[in-house]
Each structure stands twice: as C-alpha cells, then as structure tokens.
Amino acid sequence: MLSPETSRVQNAPLRPLFVKELWEILSGRALWTMLLLMCPLVGYSFFQAASLYGEASVAGLQSPVLASSLSPLDGILVPTFGAFYVAITLLFPFVAIRVLGQEKESGALRLLVQLPYRSPTLIAAKLAAVLAAWALSSMPALSALVVWEVLGGHLSAPETLNLLLGHLLYGLLVGAIALFAASVAESAATAAIVTLAFTIGSWVLDFTAAGQPGLLAWVSSLSLTQMLHTFEQGLLSARLVAGICAGVLGFAALGAVWLPPGIQTRDKVIRSVVCLVAAMLALGLASQVKLTFDVTEDRRNSFPPADQRLLASLSQPLVVTVHLAPEDPRYADLQRNVLAKLERSMPNVSIRLADGRQRSSSSADEDHYGEVEYNYAGRSDVSRSTSPREILPILYGLARVSRPAPAPGRDYPGYPLVTGSPVALLWFFFGLPLCIALAWWWSRRLPKPIAARSRRRFNHEHD
Amino acid sequence: MDGVLQVVSPNRSSPRNPTFAITAAAASEQPCKQVLLRVDSISKRYADQTILSDVAFDVQAGEILGIIGPNGAGKTTLLEAVAGMLPIEKGDVRWHGKPLPPPRRREAIFYLPDGVRPYQEQPVARVLTFFAEVYRRSTNEVQDAVGSVGLTPVLHKRVHALSKGYSRRLLLTLGLLTPHPLLFMDEPFDGFDLRQTREIVSVLRRKAVQGRTFVLAIHQLSDAERVCDRFVLLAEGCARGVGTLNELRARTGIAGGSLEDIFLALT
Predict the structure, then answer these.
(1) Exposure string over A255-280, b if 16+ CB within 10 A, otherwise e
(2) Spatial CB neighbours of A446, under 8 Å, sequence gap ≥ 6
(3) Do both A332 and A281 map to the same domain?
(4) CB contact, 8 Å: B175 with chain A?
C-alpha cells in the first residue's frame, strides 16, 4: 500500500536491535561502576561468611552431629548473595533505567520508535539487555563460588542453581520495574526515584509489616525481598516462579504501553488498566499452582521420604486449627517444622488460624491457647507440640495407618571447612576489579577496522 | 556488526559541481505531480494554548516542501503531529487518498527531529551499521549515503565528539538509509555554513530527483527559498499561505518578491 519498500519498513531483523542494546549497556559507565563497587562488597561478605563458617567448622570437625548442621547454603551462599542482593536493590535500577532513559534524554528514542519494531519488541530487547547486565553483575558473586570451590568448599548444584534462579528473577523484576519507570517518567532521575520506591519500599514493608496478622501479613507478602527468602530456604516454588514471571511481564507490558509517543494519555491509561487486570489474573492463576520442590541436600524442608510418600497418599482433607498468635515464636516453629511441610506433601490441607487475641479473653480461651487441633476423616486430636516427631504419629492415628518404617539412606553429613584465607580478599579487592577495568577498557575501544580504514581514507583524501 | 561499512567514497562535490544545476526554481516548474500526502485540519492544543489551528496542505511526490515560519510558529509540532509522534485533537492525514492512522504513519514517513544526537557513546560507524542492518541496506547503499553527505572523516569518532554540523550530517545519513518515501526533517541546515548548506541541498535535490520526497521545517527564509519547491507559510499555528514561490507572489501581488517579502506580507 505504501511503497515498494514496505517490507523493509514493516519487517526488520531482531539481531541488530539486540546488538545495539548490548552495546548501549556496555558503553555506559553505570554498569562498570556498579561492578567495581560490587567487588569489595561481595568479596568482604564472602570473606566474613567463610571466616565464620571456618570457626564453626573447628567444632564440627570434632563432632559429626555438629558437622551435620554445617550447610554451605546457609553459611556461604546466602550471605554472599545477600551482598549481591543489596547491590541489585540499590544500584542495579540505575543500570536498568539507563537502557531506556539515555535514549529518552538524548532524543534517540524518537528515532527508535520509528524503526520497524513494535513497542513490545523494543521493550523485550531492552529487557534482554537488562538480563545481560544482570549476568555481568553476578560475576563477583559467581567468582566467590569459584573461590569457595578452590578453597575446598562443597557446593550442591541444585541448591546453588535454585538460589541463582531466585536472584535472577529478582534482578529481572527490578529491571522490569526500572524499564516501566523509565518509560513513564520524563527524566532518568524521576525513574530512579520510582524504582527505588519499589525496591526500598519493599524493605520498609519487611521491617514494618512482616509477622503481623491479617491485612498487614498480606501487605508484607507483596514485598519484593520476601520472594528471595523462599529460594534462600532451598525451596523451588512453581507458584513463586510463575508469580514473579507474571510480575515481570506485567511491568514490561506497562513499559510497552507508555513507550510510544503519539498516543493520548487517556488511551495509555486505559491500556494500562487492561495490562494490570491481565497481570492480576495471571498472579491469581499462579497462586493456584501448588508445586514446590525441596532442593536442599539435607532435605530440611521435607519429612523423611517414607513419611512423604505416606502423607501424599492421604487423600481426605486435613483441617488444622492453630490457637496461637501469628507473632508467637511457637507459631513460626510450627509453621516451619510441620505446617509448611504438610502443605507441600499432602494433597488437601487447610490451615485455620484461630483469633490470636484469645489470650486476653476468657480463661477458657486462655486454656486453649497454644493448642493445635488436627481434623482428618471426621476424627480429631489436639497437640501443643511443634515437632513432627510428635505430630506425625497423631496424623497417622487419625488416618488409621501405621507409621512407615524409616527408609535406609545416608544422613546429611554436613560440610565443615576451616578456611577464611585473606588471600581471597586480594582477588576481590585487586584481581577482579582489574579484570573488570580491562573489560571496561575493551568495551570502550573503537571498532578497529573501521577506525583504521577511516583514518587511511581520511589521510589519503588530505594528502 | 560493523562490517557493513568498508570502503566509502567521499562526495567531493562543491558549489561548482554540475549537480547544483538542478535548482529549486527549475524543479518548481515541473508539471503537477501526484499528491502523496494530504494533511487536513490539523489542530493541536496544550492546555488552553492553541499551537496549531486547522492547518492543511498537500505533499507532492518527489518535491521538497518547506514548512516555513519563525521560532514558535508551530513547525516542529506540525511535523511531529503529521508523523504520528504527537497526539492531536483534530485532523486527518491521507496517503494516496486513503486515511493513514497515526500507528501506520511510520511506515510512510520517517521523521528526523531537531537537536538529536543518538547513541552518543557509540562510534558513528556503529550507529550507521545499526540502521543499515535494520533496513537491510547493502554496503553500496551505505557507502553512497555516507559519501554523499561527507560523513567519512568522522566514522571512527563517537557521536558525542561530533561537531554540530557533523551531527546534522549523521542524522541526515540515518534518514537517507531509511526506505521511507517521505522524509520529514526539522531544521536540517541548522549548524551548517553556506557552503555546507549548499552541499546538503544538492544531496536532497538528487534524492528528490530519484523519487524521494522531503518536508523540511526551516526558519531561515533564505535557506528555504534556495531549497524548497513549495512552501507552507506558518505563523502562530496557522497556515497563512501554501504554494510555489510564483504562486505566493501572485497571491500577494509582489512580483519578483523574495520569500521574505511574501512572508511579511502574509503574516
């Protein structure tokens, strides 16, 4: 309809767009500065974690019981990646915003939106660049894992990969929020404020609302940082992964809605509402997914395998009524040791929290405080224990099944390692920063053939 | 990625070059051409301020149309509105007589804004290669575009290191690499001296002869008179006159008057 070259205008290869986005993010100072800042931050966290782990390992080497409590996931991986998380929360938004904000400020965005790509494609390319930036940013943390292996430490692949996946999803979510903010905001500074409101706001939610009952508990569950806790516990939750993916896609879609000029704000708002509704529906669907895997080597999030199999075969609904306040430490114990495991192993479990303010009401209610009532197949029993050793027999009794014989298997040995060599610090304070500086220099080089050819031709013309 | 740009033949044309024989005046005497784009009743307001009021004009195939007016006349707003980069309250744009909705305008029109330095951290060659790969331009086509605007000496420089003139040349080259039949350019000669302006005019002329159509927003009347086949005289958001120089002279009754005289008479 338009011109003989319409196909060139309507269809364009994706490769140049992705390559351009990569060059753009590599050319900026923000990424490299963040990487340089992360080296000492992650390195010192790793060094501290390894030192503490080494001190605990001294006793662990004398006693197998103590050794079995030494897991590199808790001792090394979580603290090391904790520093990485801080950097991603505070610094990564600036890198991600640059992917779009720079083009917006230089006016290049007005050229970009005229290229034969749809807005979702442009945002997808930018999200891919953000992903590449995250991969580069993870180098200090990944190098800490290599150092740990070199020092003789143990790493469980499923635990490590699960934690990496959690941080990757968190990074993508922060990146998607940053892209959305950059798309909406007029300046990069405003976009940074919007993004930090999300990330630092999550910390505030964690501090103020976590552990609170009712609405506050629901509000605290929206915190971005809460999602990492599941991965840090060694759990791979399909619900969580699907929920985060829905969040990433939702923010990316909002970014695509607000990217193109030439559309009335009213229309953008309507499209945004549609995106929000779709994202909410996706989150609702994701919340129905109940598949969770315990990827820890010590199976800390599961009952013994024989119990797991038997519990999975109990098909009738189990109703648990807990007479404890949510902030009561016993409730946290019960939740971690029993209820969460039951929810993951049994097909139909309902947990009801009785009013937590019972303590201040009648004396009869006070007598019931601390009780946990289990109802299965029309039979019920009550316990005050928070230990699976006492609760599982109660459940088997209610279900009229006999307790399974423990399956033979190797107990988790633990992995004590006395280390804490300050030599590792040299890598994080000198070696790695030097490598990053060299990579920065390499990325700043002009393309040699063109430079040489151009100079040759230029000299030739002016001879 | 940078392989598209290999050997570039620079354009050594000068004001003495025979290509300058094709002048705006000669082009304006050509027979009536096909209407490519019809702009009708474009209006744009910001809050309670009217920026454009019922602006209407046609763009003919292969011509260079000048949107002429002082700073603040609404030239940039008009270009952006027609290019679909700015939402408008009212107005209609037709392509070969058929309605062209804003989302599809980028298939027909490419708009080069004023004051843009795209991808400042990248070498010029890399920016050109990006556009060339997006539009699947051959090496020869890229060399032709680079050579015609004289961008060769700065291919290895980063965009932020370019002078204002070379920055303009880069934008023009990007525009030439696009396959769109209609190119909108906002203040294309800003930053050029007289000689450079003439070089760029000759480039635009050659491209127009080859079938490309240009709409240029220009505030320098002398530049506009030298370059454009027809004019849209814009003042305070209203089109005060549309036509060739001769048509505008006839309308104002200023025989032999310059564009400046006509503009003053009409506004």
Answers:
(1) bbbbbbbbbeeeebeebbeebeeebe
(2) B123, B156, B158
(3) no
(4) no
Determine the Cα–Cα distance for residues B226 and B56; give it in Å rounded to an integer.
23
> Does A459 fall in a domain?
no
**Tokens 């790493």, located at residue:** A155
For A342, the token pair is 């039951």
CB B93 within 8 A of CB B39: yes
Alpha-carbon separation of residue A45 from A41, A106, A168, A435 (angstroms)? 6, 38, 19, 20
Are the CB atoms for A37 and A437 separated by under 8 Å?
no
In terms of domains, do A211 and A134 share one?
yes
Say yes or no: B6 contacts chain A, CB-CB below 8 A. yes
Question: What tokens appear for B257 in the block?
Answer: 């008057």
pTM score:
0.86
Chain B partners within 8 Å of A460 (Cβ): none
Pick the closest to residue B52 from B43, B64, B60, B61 (CA basis). Answer: B43
| pLDDT tens by residue, A320-372 | 999 988 778 898 899 989 999 999 999 999 998 886 554 445 555 667 889 99
Query: Contact at 8 Å (CB) between A210 and A227?
Result: no
CATH classification (class only), B19-122+180-266? alpha beta
Contact B120 A106 (CB under 8 A): yes
Helix ranges (H only) for A288-346 are 305-312, 329-334, 340-345
Q: Does B123 touch chain A (CB under 8 A)?
A: yes
- In angstroms, the CA B150 to CA B169 distance is 7
The single-letter code of the amino acid at B11 is N
Per-residue pLDDT for B116 more than 50?
yes
Q: The domain spanning residue A362 has which CATH number?
A: 3.40.30
- Residue A117 sits in which domain range? 13-289
Pair (A133, A220) in one structural domain: yes
Question: Are A362 and A263 found together in one domain?
Answer: no
For residue B3, what are the CA distances in angstroms to A108, A450, B126?
Answer: 23, 8, 9
Contacts of A330 (CB under 8 A, 6+ apart): A324, A370, A386
Within a domain: A438: no
Contacts of A458 in chain B (CB under 8 A): 152-153
What does the alpha-carbon distance between residue B195 and residue A219 come to, in Å, rounded to a whole number? 67
**Strand-pair category, B109-112 with A379-383:** unpaired
Quick one: A276 and A332 in the same domain? no
DSSP B63: -
Residue A92 lies in a domain: yes
* Every domain of chain B and the residues it spans: 19-122+180-266
User: Are A343 and A218 part of one and the same domain?
Assistant: no
Instruction: Tell me, yes or no, if B130 comes closer than 8 A to chain A by beta carbon.
Output: yes
How much is the ipTM here? 0.86
Strands A349-353 and A318-322: parallel
Contact predicate A76/A149, CB 8 Å: no
* Domain tally, chain A: 2
Q: How far apart are CA B55 and CA B48, in angstroms?
A: 18
Q: Are residues A142 and A33 in the same domain?
A: yes
What is the rounded distance in angstroms from the CA atom of residue B152 to the CA atom of residue B172? 13
Per-residue pLDDT tens digits for A37-65: 999 999 999 999 999 999 999 988 888 88
The answer to whether residue A427 sits within a structural domain is no
| pLDDT tens-digit map of B69-89 | 988 899 999 999 999 999 998
* CA pair distance B225, B233, nearest whole angstrom: 12
| Closest listed residue to residue B175, CA positions, set B95, B237, B113, B83 | B113
CB-based contact, B8 to chain A, within 8 Å: yes
Residue finishing a domain among A289, A319, A342: A289
Residue of B102, B125, B135 lying closest to A262 (CB–CB): B102
Angle at B116 between CA B114 and CA B122, to 5 degrees: 155
Residues A339 and A276 in one domain: no
